[in-house]
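Please, does this match?
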Amino acid sequence: MKNPVSPLLVRILVTTLSYMSLMRVMYFVKTLYFSEAHHMTFRGILS
């Protein structure tokens, strides 16, 4: 019943999911930061 390949696959899957979620969070933070900075610059130009 036990498969010796299973722990390796689980580790790869967990690593891949963690990496993808990390990249998604970093992308979200970067987008939020740049939009905030752009908004501040736009506000500075308007005033």
Summary: Helices lie at 6-46. Residues 1-47 form one domain. The first helix runs from residue 6 to 46. The chain has one helix and no strands.
